[in-house]
Structures are given as structure tokens and as C-alpha cells.
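Supplementary Methods, section 5.1.

A reviewer requested that the exact input to the structure prediction be made available. We therefore reproduce it here, unchanged from the version used in the analyses.
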Amino acid sequence: MGQRPANEQNKRFVADYRKKHPGLSPTFYGAQTYDAAMLINSAVVATKGDLSDKEAVRKAMEKADFESVRGKFRFGTNHIPIQNFYLQEAIKDGDGYVLKTVATIVEDSQDRFHEQCPMK
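The structure derived from this sequence is encoded cell-by-cell as follows.
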């Protein structure tokens, strides 16, 4: 799984994926989709299932109150994720390759245009 060292949520996601799809590993896009589902679930839980209050749902989603497979994760004022980025190396593992995290190259990365965004 790319871009982050394994945390408990990441390990569970990878194990569940491999159990359902033997011989395959999840992709970065799969991890993003999983996080999106967990984000939506956190808003459903926070609003006690009342999705009719769109403002409450939006505020709950802005909190990003879920365990991300990406590790530390939150949204900036312009709704772009603030997260770490990692240097990784492709290493041979059995018949294929996996990504091994070598170092954290950027911590709490926020896009450089967030100050210009009117969503404050």
C-alpha cells in the first residue's frame, strides 16, 4: 500500500482486502475510497443518521473524525487534506513488488494556495 507507513487501520484494511482478494494487494486508490467511506460513516454516526441537516453533515465531515489508512489526516480550511507524504522504495516480495516506506519527506503537508481560498 503506498504513501504511508502502516498504522492499525491500514493493517486491517490490507488484511481484509487480501482475505477477500487472495494474491492481490490494495492500491492507493482503494485506500482513498476506503477513507472516503469511513469519512461518510463518521458523519452518519455524528448526526445519528439524520442526513437531512446538510450543514450538520458538512460540519461532521470537516472534522474528519475517523481512523484513516493514511495515518494522521485532517482537512484544511479549503477542504484539501493535510497529511504526511513518504519516500518509498519498490522491493521484490514473492512474485511481485511492494512499497517499503524509507522516510517521511513532508509532514502535515498543506497545499500552498489554502490562504487564497475564500472558504475560511
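DSSP finds three helices and three strands in the chain. These observations are discussed further in the main text.
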